Request: fold
Amino acid sequence: MPEYRIAPSILSADFARLGEEVRNVSEAGASLIHFDVMDNHYVPNLTIGPLVCEAIRPYTDLPIDVHLMVKPVDRIIPDFAKAGANIITFHPEASDHVDRSLSLIREHGCQSGLVFTPATSLDYLDYVLDKVDMVLLMSVNPGFGGQKFIPAMMDKARAARAKLDKYKEQTGRHIALEIDGGVKVDNIGELAAAGVDTFVAGSAIFGHPDYKAIIAEMHRQIAL
Ligand code: DX5
Ligand code: ZN
Reply:
């Protein structure tokens, strides 16, 4: 059985009390803190950068999972590594040299990952899997929290897991599969069965009055 991880997306947190929100979800059973970086260029929204990553770092011992939705990619990687990020993922379409960006993330001591928008082909993985620690599938179009899960992404999750299982057979190395967008208690079980092991949830967690209860319920649904 894989290790199942819930990654609250702080995009839906109360930004006026961000440190406290990060501490609260960490104490409530989260496994990662998902940190959405948007630049109003690659995606139509503007959020937070390395300064905010550094500011929340003392509020949690959990890994900070930085999801870059920025273009260009490379020049911001060292800044996030210095700010305390542990995992950095980016969209291949936003990088001129995907292999180089992946290497750069690892050279800065972080785990690396590629993010796939709903329409992006998984073929991008074919020649770079050795440099990838996590694959992030977007199940909404990037830019905003609170959108509806795109049902076709269930099949894409199965296809991604099959690719990663094949790689594991050849190399023995497990690559995590994360999903992001519209994850709720009513689809998380099916996603786990499809082979997802890491679940980003923004509105489902921060929109719930009891973070511990909602994270526990997510784990319960996964285990069913
Ligand atoms: C969207 C972000 C997501 C977002 C998910 O571009 O990457 O991480 O916060 O929010 P929910 O869980 O509300 O769909
Ligand atoms: Zn995200």
The chain is about 35% helix and 20% strand. Helices lie at 18-27, 50-56, 77-82, 98-107, 153-171, 185-193, 203-206, 211-223. The mean pLDDT is 98.
